[in-house]
Amino acid sequence: MMATRRELLLKLAAKVSNNQRATAAIATGLAARNGLIQRSSRSFSTAAQVDPPTATIVNKAAPADLASSLDQAKLEGETPKRSRVSDVTIQEVLKAKHTARWVEPVIPHNATVRDAIVTCISQNISGMMVVDRTDTMKRQQKCVGLITSRDLLRIMAASIKDGKSAEEILNQSVIQQMTPINQVIYGRPDETIGMCRAIMAKLGIKCLPILVDGRVEGIITARDMSEFYYDPKDLGGKKNYLTDVSERVGLSENTSMAEPPIFVRQHLASKHDPLFINVGTAEYPHPFKSHDGVGANRRDFGPDDLATDPSLSEDAHFVSTVEMLDESGTNMQKLLYMGVADGVGSWREYGVDPRDFSRMLMGECQNILRDASSECSATGGTACTMISPAELLARSYKRTKEANVIGSSTACVGVFDSVHHQLHFSNIGDSGIIVLRHIDSDVASALQRNRTTPRTERKSDLRIAFVSQQQLKSFNHPYQMGWTGEEVVDKNSSFKQASDSCTSSVHILRGDIIIMATDGLFDNVDIDDIASIALKWELDNEFIDNGGIDTRRRRWESGSSLTDISAQCIPTLAEMLCQKARENSLDNTVDSPFALLAKENDIMWSGGMPDDCTVVAMHVVGKPANLNDV
């Protein structure tokens, strides 16, 4: 039987209140959180007071403004028009929630995981603001972070994996496990239910603090928005039980899980077969760059040919294949690591070469992996395990600081686990990863289908399966890793640690195309155009036939993977993308993605955005290269 998150916490809270060991309850059905997308759009003020609602009664089924319009319609003899739920403002939802039941969703910063679990269950809440009451009055509580029931499950799952006892888990401090205040995603009272639902779905969050004049007025959840417009009479009573519950409560003893769909079974049948990646890289410098500096435009650059020397680029990258222990700690496996970094050019104004930091950061990533692989070989695989991308970035950053290399850069580092078909990555700034995949419309869900182009007019079923989240302080101001010669203590600084990175994992399928690149690509080439270029590359090299995947599937079934052709041609795809980025960056007649976003942020910009561009293109295949196809 599958337990809900609330049931798990209820069981654990009961054991905590009786001072019993909670190991069994903690271990049941726990899963690590996928990772909160991190962004710092605006700092919360020190005042985080949540005031109870006034005595004004708000009808939950019809907010004040809606109720008045309904009454007016009745007086005029018209049929009242109900407002769409998605158009109702969050302010009305918050009023209705507080009127029905007032709970202050806070927990002290010195509280433990044990306290947080009990608070969640006793107050029936999914999230709490962590507040510091040290130097403030009780009603003026300074918010320092946010912790949710999902965080608590993630904490317990990670701690169990680390072998901690129940007491050690429950006695951990929430301030060490919370989402820091400068990474909390928040909403505004004038935003609608539809808008907030979209934000929560896109970013994978369940709790949304509502900020008003620097104060958190409450926390909205998906359940709050779903329950809005329901009267108590709609939720209880005999009639509602007979209508909504009686015919669907209780499963028979013979209930079992259904078999996966055919296309899923086909994938599961091969899930134990390792996958391999062929990699190609390309790096173009800023078109107006020379050894003397960077021209603002073509006239400023002069009549010389556009720059092509990769050594002029402030980008850096690495690709390394190493052998380390798998997560079981018993078997050696090959791991493919890759990374890109974009040096911040404004350091040039201070006499610092922007290339130094990015190259050192990526170079040390490669050195760390080489050292770890050598250690594995020397010890017979007894003292090394897979290094996570975030840990790799942290170690490289430490070495870069110790070498006193001044500068800063964005960074994106990933590792491909060929056995589990997982791509793990950590990203800081506006570099990133996209995954392109052929998704058969006959079996795809409604949301994955191409609903804009009629099927008869489509050239292929190549879709954008994943786009990594970027981290920006503001427009054209990405967060970055950096070193000035001393530690920066300003909390509003653009500098971030590896622990602040957006860290996630993507399940990879055979035939996928993975693109890791700096912003020189994404600022100049629309993602749909990237997919079109990748499709042309597939067609040119006959990986697919006329945009379809039936021929490819039959070829795979016969044992032919075209691995060698893929390994030879994948650098061409990286080159094609870099070349397209350069062409678009020099085109002043068509607005690039950068220009479109600039105008949305009230910045006048037309055409492309000349910049360094680095692309790491990857093609997922079923055999390692250098094998003869059957």
UniProtKB/TrEMBL annotation:
<protein>
    <recommendedName>
        <fullName>Protein phosphatase</fullName>
        <ecNumber>3.1.3.16</ecNumber>
    </recommendedName>
</protein>
<dbReference type="InterPro" id="IPR000644">
    <property type="entry name" value="CBS_dom"/>
</dbReference>
<feature type="domain" description="PPM-type phosphatase">
    <location>
        <begin position="300"/>
        <end position="620"/>
    </location>
</feature>
<feature type="domain" description="CBS">
    <location>
        <begin position="99"/>
        <end position="163"/>
    </location>
</feature>
<keyword id="KW-0464">Manganese</keyword>
<dbReference type="InterPro" id="IPR001932">
    <property type="entry name" value="PPM-type_phosphatase-like_dom"/>
</dbReference>
<dbReference type="InterPro" id="IPR046342">
    <property type="entry name" value="CBS_dom_sf"/>
</dbReference>
<keyword id="KW-0479">Metal-binding</keyword>
<feature type="domain" description="CBS">
    <location>
        <begin position="178"/>
        <end position="235"/>
    </location>
</feature>
<keyword id="KW-0460">Magnesium</keyword>
<keyword id="KW-0378">Hydrolase</keyword>
<dbReference type="Pfam" id="PF00571">
    <property type="entry name" value="CBS"/>
</dbReference>
<dbReference type="InterPro" id="IPR036457">
    <property type="entry name" value="PPM-type-like_dom_sf"/>
</dbReference>
<dbReference type="InterPro" id="IPR039123">
    <property type="entry name" value="PPTC7"/>
</dbReference>
<dbReference type="GO" id="GO:0004722">
    <property type="term" value="F:protein serine/threonine phosphatase activity"/>
</dbReference>
<keyword id="KW-0129">CBS domain</keyword>
<comment type="similarity">
    <text>Belongs to the PP2C family.</text>
</comment>
<dbReference type="GO" id="GO:0046872">
    <property type="term" value="F:metal ion binding"/>
</dbReference>
<keyword id="KW-0904">Protein phosphatase</keyword>
